[in-house]
Amino acid sequence: MTETANPKAGTRRTSKGLKIERVFSTEGVHPYDELNWERRDVVQTNWKTGETVFEQRGVEFPDTWSVNASTIVTTKYFRGAVGTDAREWSLRQLIDRVVLTYRKGGEDHGYFATVKDAELFEHELTWLLVNQYFSFNSPVWFNVGTASPQQVSACFILSVDDSMDSILNWYKEEGFIFKGGSGAGLNLSRIRSSKELLSSGGTASGPVSFMRGADASAGTIKSGGATRRAAKMVVLDVDHPDIEEFVMTKAREEDKIRALRDAGFDMDLGGADITSVQYQNANNSVRVSDEFMRAVEDGTEFGLRSRSTGEVIETVDARDLWRKIAQAAWECADPGIQYDGTINDWHTNPETGRITASNPCSEYMSLDNSSCNLASLNLLKFLKDDDTFDAPLFAKAVELIITAMDISICFADFPTESIGKTTVDYRQLGIGYANLGALLMAMGLGYDSEGGRAMAATITSLMTGTSYKRSAELAGVVGAYNGYARNAEAHKRVMRKHQAANDVVRTLGVADSQVHKLATKAWAEVLKTGEKNGFRNAQASVLAPTGTIGFMMDCDTTGIEPDFSLVKFKKLVGGGSMQIVNQTIPRALRKLGYQEEQVEAIVEYIAENGHVIDAPGLKTEHYEVFDTAMGARALAPMGHVRMMAATQPFLSGAISKTVNLPETATVEEIEDIYLQSWKLGLKATAVYRDNCKVGQPLSDGKSDSAKKDQGEAVAETIKVVEVPKPFRKRLPKSRVSRTTSFTVGGAEGYMTSGAHDDGELGEVFLKLGKQGSTLAGVMDAFSIAVSIGLQYGVPLETYVSKFTNLRFEPSGMTDDPDVRMSQSLMDYVFRRLALDYLSFEERSMLGIYSAEERQRHLETGSYEPVEETGSAEELIAHVIEQSSVIEPVEIQENEVPTLAQIVKANPYVREDASDSAADASSVEPASALVEPVETPKEAHTSAELLEKITGTAVDSPLCMTCGTKMRPAGSCYVCEGCGSTSGCS
């Protein structure tokens, strides 16, 4: 199979090989020698049972790699039996095993002009990998350079025809792919429906019947020899006569699960009785045509066609069928939708055959019996110090990576002969990225904003444009792909479509404009060079889940996903874990213009609450920058769809992503999401409604429906609780009051506040504007409303948290030394009231301090006042005691103090920044303004930590290896503890 990859198999060569440019590595220095390396112990236990599931001590990693990254690489990718000399123990061995194989493949197949270029390719690729700038997909790390077959692909598409031989062959091929640790997808629409006759005169079984056998096979063959389920996708065309049965298969099974659960059977994920339920090992998708979608819009009938003759044998109401699809997705998250018209309109090889299916996560869409190998870049690595994206550096990385990916096809092995032939003939690649959510946050851009979408679109356009440019250059060196000649016009037409989509992107700032300019140049070169040489690859890019490899690169976010949560779970060397605030947050706040004192207060608030709502000093218009996939500021469902739509025109394949919906979402909302996805040009969409599955693990304190899904009894008795009537605590006729004059941004006013005998605030009156003016009337009404609320028991701190940080004119400087700047009159008034009537502890929770307290913090590191004792002597003793924490440190003249000496001399410098810290990877950068706190013992991943903070469930399964709760990664789930995934590798 590798012989067809010889340069002579394609178009003629026009040059002797590629000249590799040195961009990342340093001349005369090996990439490994630029890093500090350390030894670590990797010990992994099952959180549920306490059993040690893996142990390897003394592994070697750079000190810049986190404990999570080194744990996952050691357990997943190091080859050889543990405890033997054959076992890999260093990251150097792993990267060398892979990179040297790629170099040899490139040299053997004529990719490099000289030996020096091959060596430079090796060093550049090594530098990018060891510095976590990108990663190949898991099969590369599993297999390349070992005695095993050199399988490099994670994604496969199979094919099945309307014959028993083909159906049984489908079972066999799928089983071999599962055994190798990968997943596959296929379209069953060629199989005759249960409403058609066989040649013998009998009735056909239909595709849904054959799905049962394949599902049982997938449930039996543990993927890759591990305990996670196999990953597979089953697609059926919307005009298939059995489409309604297909749509309802998993929804009916979900009803069965509930009935069995209520009867006392163990129906949880991994439960003893769940295996009796069918169709649980596949993702189902309906392939809809533009004709059907127009019928849905128009409310007309739609014809279901015979598989053997193509004639319409039944008509259905299009909207009724559409409703059933959405209803099933509402009940159990299946089926998803694939948009056939859009998929095949962007198909580069239509003369060879249509695209009928996808891989399990729906990002790879290509010919039947084909495969795709993936690699993903860590976008955050390309963010410069000035918070702009380094587009030229990114493009250079893409050129090198796409070259390596194409080389891998030359030496790769494949699970079947037909897949090998198609892959070698069409050389489909899937370059993508991770950490988009973290990148946008660090740049001060909201995920669901025009600016965020513009940046994502331009980066994706640059990535794919650069990939096809390099593909055209490779075609001039080692030949175009074998199927190019018959598909040349179609391929060039799709390139022009990509270029046209790039031209209509509207940039909003300097950062995205710079990226877009380079992307525009890349697409112009794609057309020019492609016209001359053709292309080496039929496909170039996808956006994959990047589950395990995302952890390998220490990414905060996976694939195209937004940030999962603002608070992270971090493992430490030697055991234990810490709860830290996402380190992109301080950077984002500084980018948005906040001062260090404000950044500190906001980060402290996030550490405690897990969200930014009512964070002290944070402007409401900046909330969107910190929106996350889960939690109090969860993104709206259409926010996910709009981001996918922004990037889809710049991808050869599609996007692995699920649109998350709250439990309260309606069937109509799902219908609209599916419809809008079609109109916006997506190739596929999947949804998940909270609590729609019985097997979804839930934490305590949820809704009754959630508790019932856990098997907990829900009381049927309705209790009548008498709610006490609010009582108004009126002020005495004669009360203590204070009047404060103030100026905010040049506007003058007066505030009179009255208190009860116990000092509690009971009324506020504001005087602004001339008597009888609109402003004066509004302020009088506002004062009365607040005063009545206070007397009915509304806490002052509630008013303070709601009205501070409101921004409107007049705003600016004030004449109050305690509140020097104010964003509005309301902001000033309630800050002043807080200072006058709230205790120090209450104000501290809101981040409001007096001028004296802020000065004290600068001098002593504490806002709290020194507690005065009864005598001057005791006060002096207290001060001396407090001073004693600063130990004298002798530093010789002209000597530069060490970090350890600075720590010893200054108690306000973090102790874990000391030179003697044993674990450099566990030390947070100086930008971390709050000390990480010990993670609750109940939390073992970010998903569990988020549940602990918010008290709401996270819709993720438990890891079948180590028992911890996984977190979403595209259409799949990934375990932060051991790196296992629920589907795609």
Automatic annotation (TrEMBL):
The cofactors it requires, by name, are: adenosylcob(III)alamin
Where do the TSCPD domain residues begin and end?
Answer: 732-836
Q: Which GO terms describe its molecular function?
A: cobalamin binding; cobalt ion binding; nucleotide binding; ribonucleoside-diphosphate reductase activity, thioredoxin disulfide as acceptor
Q: Which part of the chain is the Ribonucleotide reductase class II vitamin B12-dependent N-terminal domain?
A: 41-132
Tell whether Disulfide bond is among the UniProt keywords: yes
Q: Which UniProt keywords apply?
A: Cobalamin, Cobalt, Disulfide bond, DNA synthesis, Nucleotide-binding, Oxidoreductase
Q: Which one Pfam family would you cite for this protein? A: Ribonuc_red_2_N
Recorded catalytic activity of this chain's protein: a 2'-deoxyribonucleoside 5'-diphosphate + [thioredoxin]-disulfide + H2O = a ribonucleoside 5'-diphosphate + [thioredoxin]-dithiol
Question: Which Enzyme Commission number(s) are on file for it?
Answer: 1.17.4.1
Which part of the chain is the Ribonucleotide reductase large subunit C-terminal domain?
A: 153-688
Q: Which GO terms describe its biological process?
A: DNA biosynthetic process
- SUPFAM superfamilies xrefs: PFL-like glycyl radical enzymes
Q: Which domain of life is it from?
A: Bacteria
What PANTHER family does UniProt report for this protein, alphabetically? Answer: RIBONUCLEOSIDE-DIPHOSPHATE REDUCTASE, VITAMIN B12-DEPENDENT RIBONUCLEOTIDE REDUCTASE
Query: NCBIfam families under this entry?
Result: NrdJ_Z, PRK06556.1
General function of this protein: Catalyzes the reduction of ribonucleotides to deoxyribonucleotides. May function to provide a pool of deoxyribonucleotide precursors for DNA repair during oxygen limitation and/or for immediate growth after restoration of oxygen.
Protein name as catalogued: Vitamin B12-dependent ribonucleotide reductase
